[in-house]
Amino acid sequence: GLLKELLKSDHFVSILMNNSKTEEETENPDFLEGKNPLPLVLKKLLLTRDEMLQAASSHCMAAVLIHSTTRYAPAFIHADVPEFLFECLLCKNEILIWSVYCCLLLLTEERLFFSKCHTVYGIESLVRSLQGVLLLNNVELHKQGLLLFTEILKRQPVEIKLFTNRGVCIEAIDVLMETVNCPVLDVVVEAVKAVAAFLRKDHLSSPPVPYEELQKLLETVLKRCADLSPSQSTKRHASHLANRNLGRVPQRQNQFLLNTLESFRNACRLAMEFQGDFMAQVNAFTTPNSETKDTLSNFSEFLLRICDSLCIPMVMSYLERAVSPSVTEVFISTLNILFAVVPSMQNKFSKKLASSSFIRLTLELKARFCSVHSNPVLNHTCSSFLCSLCLNLYSATEKRRTSQEGKFGEREKMSELLQKGLPRLNYTIAESLLLLSETPEPFFLDQSLCSHQHCFILLLYFAYTFGDRFVPDAELFLAVRNFFLSAQDRGDCPPPHILRAALYLLAVCQDKGKVLDMRSLSTIRRILNNLPDLSLVYVHCPLLLKFFLRYPELMGRFGHQVLQLWFSWEDYKQTEAEKVDFGTSNQLNSADPLLPILKSNSSILLILLDLVCSSSVEVAWKVLMTLRTFLERNEDVLVCDLLRSQFLQILQQLLVESSSATLQGD
């Protein structure tokens, strides 16, 4: 007791620990052991079987270390004191366990504690201690033990493997699962922090990797977090961020959600890192010839499933009540990592995110938290996510175009544009719409305005393609029209992928917008005339077809090409997933979308008849099927007479061509 009181004095501790030694002497373990009698004395007390003396010894160590871990910890570590502290954890004395936890926690601040491998030898004792402590009704002891476990997991050097025994690793997972299910929130918060620190490749890379146990652990953590989230009686849209108040959500629950998301993000990183590890992929040393679910592939698919079913709904529920930059940063970065976790599913996952308003949500987060160079980490995360999402959506929707038109490098150009432009696109949606109408001053060298416009149009294109129409159609129609006019005013011809997006947006908003005036139509026509091939900006969508055939100024110049493309792409056999790529109905693979247009504008029939003569056999057959369906449903005598005379001419022409070909063959 006297020694403990004296150790409260910094001067006394300094004298007792012989702190007047030089730096070279500090690095000499023989000097430390010979000239520092106190660590040796306290070590001898630990070697006794008297728990009271052991507790007193650890109290005295903590009293010394609390003055300066850097100055005094090496002496205790070189004396191998940590080894005996870990052994003391196997007792059931709460006072002794608490004091040892405190002492070891202070020692974790010294790198020598880890480089001497004390944690490697002591981790089993710590895990067994936590198992025993959980049986005790002592919340503070639970928290302190978990805090020590977390610090060891976080600070353990990557090059020194902590879990050399797979059995201890499994026991650690069991302990974490049990603490996560604890009824006391403070204990659960510490447990989830430990889970986040535990999910590191170097902690789990000893084959076979316990994937099934990790799945159970993550599911437990996410379900616990979902259970503790306050329920909302009124559900509002996740992206309406304007009036949310962070203070409504208790700070403890906010921290718990953050730790949960960090755990899940670390698990996703773990899966991605294991993709480059052959031993982790095949999970070697499992039972031969056994059908096991304990594989990286199953674990990765589990991460994607549980993100969709549990993680995303939980965060969206939180966003209805409050928005924290730290929570959203971890959440968005997790989604970005998931794109690479199951590469075969990234397109499907991207489509689901786009259709669930994630483009809008991310734009609003950037506008709210990242303007005026604030929150650079969140800004980078959101920008990187939007870039990956758009490129995945491009790959999903443009697969056929790339193979047919061979537009090498378009994806790379889009990637470069998004990477440069998105970090600076931190405006509200209303501000971004206004930017579409702006024209830079003459000789203005800064291309940021053009970059902002192009990035925003691409984001709108992918959002609208998957049904997230977050701008009123009339406003968007006007803004995109103004974009074409401003591009013409500055003598700029946007690249094909931007023109394609802008034309699509005009087409899908046309019914809610005003009829385009002559100036706008002339501008669009002039820009399209500069293209080497209209297929570069073509989107296989009934609304785009209707847009081109609606205006005589466009139909006269591009009607033949658009209809040719329409029937060419109609021959393409689409999967069910691709049918919904542009938010259209099952009519996409039939003649139905064209029939109402034909009925309202019979002059299109002449173009179709020309296609019968000038197109390939497949396209001509498609056109004839459309005409047959149209005639079956149409009773207009004048139209029938027109078609009858034209068909006779076509037949005569085909007969002449056929006869000529036969004679040449003979």
From TrEMBL:
Family matches, as InterPro entries: ARM-type_fold, Immune_Signaling-Apoptosis_Reg
GO biological process, one term: meiosis I
Protein name: MEII1 protein
Naturally occurring in which organism (per UniProt): Cettia cetti
Name of the encoding gene: Mei1_1
